[in-house]
Design goal:
The structure is a single chain. The protein is an alpha+beta fold. It has one domain: Trna Endonuclease, Chain: A, domain 1 (3-Layer(aba) Sandwich), CATH 3.40.1350. It is about 35% helix and about 20% strand. The protein contains 4 helices and 6 strands. A 4-stranded mixed β-sheet has the order 3-4-5-6, sandwiched between helices. A two-stranded antiparallel ribbon has the order 1-2. Strand 4 and strand 5 form a beta hairpin. Helix 1 runs parallel beside helix 4.
Length: about 140
């Protein structure tokens, strides 16, 4: 964690850890898909290929959250620091997941943004997040 211009700068990992604490504190059932692991040594590259062969998909959202009546899929990016834009495969996953009536998928910029999606039921101000959930979102 860094402080710059009176702002706390968190890494994407730190943003994820805060969000996981929030989900657990509120007893919200979820799964984190650990696709972000960049593995360099020979043994780990081999393990990564095994995971791909077992079905791990590039670009799949970071979090699958089980809400009442639907699944919420969140790709999380860090709020400050080096920009982390959505990749083409992440955009494709989000667009394809949103074709299902029971899935709300999108991306969030940081922990606070992700919590707002849980609490208010929509992704805010992002080009690739156009789907909204009705009142059922407020029922946790």
């Amino acid at each position: 964690m860094q402080v710059k211009n009176n702002k706390i700068i968190l890494t994407e990992k730190q943003e994820h850890l805060l969000f996981v604490k929030y989900l657990r504190l509120h007893n919200i059932l979820f799964h984190h898909s650990a696709n972000e692991m960049r593995i360099q040594n020979k043994e780990n590259v081999k393990w990564n290929m095994i995971r791909v062969n077992m079905g791990m998909s590039a670009g799949f959202p970071d979090f699958i959250i089980f809400m009442k009546g639907y699944l919420l899929c969140i790709e999380m990016k860090r709020l400050y620091g080096v920009p982390s834009a959505l990749s083409i495969v992440q955009r494709d996953w989000i667009e394809n997941l949103n074709k299902y009536d029971y899935i709300l998928a999108g991306w969030c910029k940081g922990y606070d943004d992700a919590v707002n999606v849980i609490e208010y039921g929509k992704f805010e101000n992002y080009k690739y997040n156009t789907k909204l959930i009705c009142e059922v979102m407020n029922e946790k």
